Amino acid sequence: MSIKKIFLIFLLLLIFPFDKAEALAKYNLPELSQIDAIKSNASVDELIDSIPAEGNLNDPNLLLVNPSNPINNQIEVDLVTSIEGIPYAANIEEKLSQLLQAGLEDGYLFTIISGYRSTNQQAGLESSRKQSLMAVGYSESEARYLTNLYTAPANATEHMTGLAIDILGQDWTSIGGGLTENYSETASAQWLVENAANFGFILRYPQNKTEMTTFNFEPWHYRYVGQLNAQFMMEHGLTLEEYLALIEERDRRKKIEKVKQAAENQAVDEAKRWLEEQKKTIDKLFYNSSTD
After folding, report:
1. Residues 89 and 184 grouped into a single domain
2. Which residues pair with 169 in a beta bridge?
3. Which range marks the domain in which residue 148 is found?
């Protein structure tokens, strides 16, 4: 290989460092330009640089289920049951118990309203809510639209993972409050917002993020994602969709850098071999010249 060809390869690597390379996306995720760290105002690059090392697209606790990322097969979940008789994933039992205990110690008694739902149960809930809206005068299309704002399709609900819970404080349920946005005004709801991440839970459908999650604000819906992941998301005001998009971009950049480095190393090795060959040629010339 000529020295010109080697340096041409090296130059091309520097000019075109695989920026067009595309990572194989596991999910349909938002564009980086859509990500908004509403609490910290951190840039995308700053966010990527500070992602917890534990952040992993293959982490089952970060499983994304939404209308853009449905799961058509029933998920097998090892379940336990709350004192209210509500099932949820066994792997979050310890952290959920710690969350409830911490709330109790601060004066807030919480009730688990909903947890795991099978796809059949979710389909029944979706149909029931749509029929209820039609019964009070909404057209079928209007009822479907309003239902979808708060109720996911049967194959696109987080409740099928067992990692999502609907939770309300006694300060709200004692006055007849239910799963409505007004719950956010109560002290118990505000306590959850401030403390849930310390136990690995995030407010899954926050205010002002409907375009990202496709669901309206649900101050009662919490999702387990793991403590470090939750703290990062809550610190910056990110949804799960945004967090996964950041992880995917971090991994893409690492892959590009790894490929670039490998290619550069290969070019350097080729250059070294070429120089060795030239040295041998020169040595032979000098040797032959000195013996004549």
Report:
1. yes
2. 110
3. 118-156
162-189 per-position pLDDT tens digit: 999 999 999 999 999 999 999 999 999 9
In DSSP notation, 52-111 reads: -TT--TT-GGG---BTTB---SPPP--EEE-TTS-EEEGGGHHHHHHHHHHHHHTT--EE
Under DSSP, the state recorded for 114 is: E
Rg (CA), the chain: 27
The number of helices, as runs of H, and strands, as runs of E, in the chain is: 10, 6
Are residue 162 and residue 59 in the same domain, yes or no?
yes
CA-nearest of 51, 23, 17, 9 to 261 is 17
- Whole-Å CA distances, 62 to 179, 191, 192, 256: 24, 23, 20, 24
44/110 same-domain check: yes
Indicate whether 100 and 145 sit together in one domain.
Answer: no
Decide if 63 contacts 26 (C-beta within 8 A): no
Q: Catalytic amino acids? A: 218
pTM of the model: 0.81
- Mapped onto helix, strand or coil, the DSSP state of residue 205 is coil
Residues 162, 149 within the same domain: no
Using CA atoms, how far residue 208 sits from 151, 156, 186, in Å, is: 18, 21, 19
The separation between CA 272 and the C-alpha centre of its own chain, rounded to angstroms, equals: 45
Q: Is 203 exposed, middle or buried (0-12, 13-18, 19+ CB in 10 A)?
A: buried
pLDDT of 98-127, one tens digit each? 999 999 999 999 999 999 998 888 888 878
